[in-house]
Design goal:
The protein is mainly alpha-helical. It folds into 2 domains: 211 residues, Rossmann fold (3-Layer(aba) Sandwich); 84 residues, Tyrosyl-Transfer RNA Synthetase (Orthogonal Bundle). It contains 13 helices and 5 strands. Helix 8 links the parallel strand 4 and strand 5. The longest helix has 29 residues. The N terminus is likely disordered. The structure holds adenosine-5'-tetraphosphate. The site of adenosine-5'-tetraphosphate has 22 residues, from strand 1 and helix 1.
Length: 346
C-alpha cells in the first residue's frame, strides 16, 4: 500500500559544492604512511573543495592511552597537519571533541548500524587481537563515529589510505539505511585513494606502517640521521631477483620501498625498476637514494613543525576558530536529523 503523506517531506539540504572530510588520530607521531595516504592529498584537495580536517581525539581514546599526554598529542597532530601544508584559511582544521554534535550523531546512527557488520571490520579485528585488556565497545563502534564525522558535514569526498576503504563502504551503508528509514538526508560519501595508498611497516612489511607500532614508521618530523638509519634497516630480500623478475611479484619489503621511491624520488624510479627486472639491483643503493630523497622532502616540514610547536597558543587559537566554523555546519545538520527522527517537532 502506498504511504499517504499528510505533509510535504522536507528536502535534504545538500551542499552546492562537494565537501571533503578526513581525520587523523592523535595517537602518536604522524608518519610517512599518514602523509602519503592522507595528508598529501588533503593539501591538494583544499585548493578545490570546502574541506574539513579533524584531529579525531574521540577515536584515539578507543585504545589504551595516557590522559596526561593527550592534549600534547593533539597539539602535535595539528602542528604536523599545518606543517605538511594544511592552510587554516582555506580549510577548517579542528578537534573532534570540540564539536559535540559528532557524538550525538554517532548515537543516532548506532540505531541503524548492524552489530554483525561492525564485527567484520578488519581494523577492529586487528586491534581487538592486539588488545591485552579485553575489547571495549568503543573499539567496535569506532566506524559509526567515523560515519558521523563525515555525514555531519554531508561530505562526499573522503581522502584516506587504502586501510580505510572498508570503513567508507560501511559509512555508505549506514547513510543509505538512514535515508531509507527517515527520508533522504545524507549524500553518499566516497573514498579518494592516492598513489601509494598503503605504506607498509619498514621493520615488518606484511603490516601497515602505524603510529602505535614502534619501529614500524618514519615520523614526518624525524631527523635526517634517524631517517637514514631506518631506511637502511628496512626489510628487503637477501639478494637481487633472477633476471626477468616482475616488479609486481616483488616481496612486500621491496615493493614498499618502490612505492616510497615512486612518491619521493620519481626520477630515480625507472632506473631501479629496470635494474630489478635485469636482476642487477642493489638494495643498498636504492635505500641510499630513497633516504636522501626523504631527508630533502621532509626538511621543510620538520622546520615548520618545530616553529609551530614552540608556539602552542597560536595553534590552539587556530583550532578553536576551526571548531566554531565546523559547529555552524554541524548544528544545521543535527537540526535536520533530529527533526527527521522525530526528536523535534517539524
Ligand atoms: N600505513 C599507511 N599507509 C597509508 N595511509 C595510512 N594511513 C594510516 N596509516 C597508513 C592513513 O592516514 C590517515 C589517518 O590515519 P589515522 O590516524 O586515523 O589512523 P590509522 O589509520 O589507524 O593510522 P595509524 O598510524 O595506523 O594509527 P594507529 O597506530 O593509532 O592505529 C587515514 O586516512 C589512514 O588511511
Amino acid at each position: 500500500m502506498e504511504r499517504v503523506r499528510t505533509q510535504p517531506q522536507p528536502q535534504a539540504t545538500v551542499p552546492a559544492v562537494p565537501r571533503v572530510f578526513s581525520g587523523i588520530q592523535p595517537t602518536g607521531l604522524i608518519h610517512l604512511g599518514n602523509y602519503v595516504g592522507a595528508l598529501r592529498q588533503w593539501v591538494e584537495l583544499q585548493r578545490q573543495y570546502e574541506s574539513y580536517f579533524c584531529i579525531v581525539d574521540l577515536h584515539a581514546i578507543t585504545v589504551p592511552y595516557e590522559p596526561a599526554e593527550l592534549q600534547q598529542r593533539i597539539l602535535e597532530a595539528a602542528a604536523a597537519n599545518l606543517a605538511a601544508g594544511i592552510d587554516p584559511e582555506r580549510s577548517v582544521l579542528f578537534v573532534q571533541s570540540h564539536v559535540p554534535e559528532h557524538t550525538e550523531l554517532m548515537w543516532l546512527l548506532n540505531t541503524v548500524t548492524p552489530v554483525g557488520q561492525l564485527e567484520r571490520m578488519t581494523q577492529y579485528k586487528e586491534k581487538a587481537r592486539r588488545s591485552k585488556h579485553g575489547v571495549m565497545a568503543g573499539l567496535l563502534n569506532y566506524p559509526v563515529l567515523q560515519a558521523a564525522d563525515v555525514l555531519l558535514y554531508k561530505a562526499t569526498l573522503v581522502p584516506v589510505g587504502e586501510d580505510q576503504v572498508q570503513h567508507i563502504e560501511l559509512m555508505r551503508d549506514i547513510a543509505e539505511r538512514f535515508n531509507k528509514t527517515f527520508g533522504e538526508t545524507f549524500p553518499l560519501p566516497e573514498a579518494r585513494l592516492s598513489k601509494g595508498a598503503r605504506i607498509m611497516a619498514l621493520n615488518d612489511p606484511t603490516k601497515k606502517m602505524s603510529k602505535s607500532v614502534p619501529g614500524s614508521y618514519i615520523a614526518l618530523t624525524e631527523d635526517p640521521d634517524e631517517i637514514r638509519r631506518k631506511v637502511r634497516a628496512a626489510v628487503t630480500d637477501p639478494g637481487p631477483p633472477a633476471q626477468g623478475a616482475r616488479l609486481e611479484d616483488a616481496s612486500p619489503g621491496v615493493a614498499n620501498l618502490f612505492t616510497l621511491l615512486e612518491v619521493f624520488a620519481p626520477e630515480a624510479y625507472p632506473r631501479f625498476a629496470e635494474a630489478y627486472t635485469d636482476g642487477t639491483i642493489r638494495y643498498s643503493e636504492l635505500k641510499q637514494v630513497l633516504a636522501e630523497a626523504l631527508v630533502e622532502a621532509l626538511a621543510p616540514i620538520r622546520e615548520r613543525y618545530r616553529r609551530l610547536v614552540s608556539r602552542p597558543d597560536q595553534v590552539w587559537d587556530l583550532l578553536r576558530h576551526g571548531a566554531e566554523r565546523a559547529r555552524m555546519v554541524a548544528q544545521a545538520t543535527m537540526e535536520e536529523v533530529r527533526r527527521r527522527m522525530g526528536l523535534r517537532g517539524a
